Amino acid sequence: xxxxxxxxxxxxxxxxxxxxxxxxxxxxxxxxxxxxxxxxxxxxxxxxxxxxxxxxxxxxxxxxxxxxxxxxxxxxxxxxxxxxxxxxxxxxxxxxxxxxxxxxxxxxxxxxxxxxxxxxxxxxxxxxxxxxxxxxxxxxxxxxxxxxxxxxxxxxxxxxxxxxxxxxxxxxxxxxxxxxxxxxxxxxxxxxxxxxxxxxxxxxxxx
Length: 207
Known about the structure:
Blueprint: H1 2-13, H2 15-38, H3 40-52, H4 55-62, H5 66-92, H6 97-112, H7 117-152, H8 162-197, H9 199-206
Helix pairs in contact: 1-8, 2-3, 2-6, 2-7, 5-6, 5-7, 5-8, 6-7, 7-8, 7-9
Keywords: Membrane, Transmembrane, Transmembrane helix
Protein name: Stage II sporulation protein M
Transmembrane segments: 20-39, 67-88, 95-114, 134-152, 173-193
């Protein structure tokens, strides 16, 4: 029960800040989508980059095996996005995750805007994927904020020194990381199976 309740207790204690961070993360993601809609070359450049670096080829090779596809999606979300843009920078520089991931959310949004009819159909199930995954990112950015605040202002977490404030903030970050991990797992499974089993029937129905 502690595993289930502790992260939600942390969020409830600073709910206003949590909602603001969600607004920032989702807001920059939506700005990226809008930017790609206004400037189509942004989406085209991202698509070309994914084709050139082999990402699209890897996706096609994993498409027939949803469980393996889900594991790859989970690994990409955890390591190339969450760890690289949120967790590791925040362990070194207080609040670094907020501007860094705002930029990352914008680039993800600009790269995910659908540029073809098939991609637009794919966005019907993929919009839920984005909601789940960006909620998980928001939880981590919130954890990074709490770590930075506890580090610079240890009294906010009842710590006498910055070192102890850092350690206690790191504990809160860890609890929130477990909650985010659960969302990432759900998002990876939904993304893999929805792309494999929903997009084609929807395209047959709508196109």
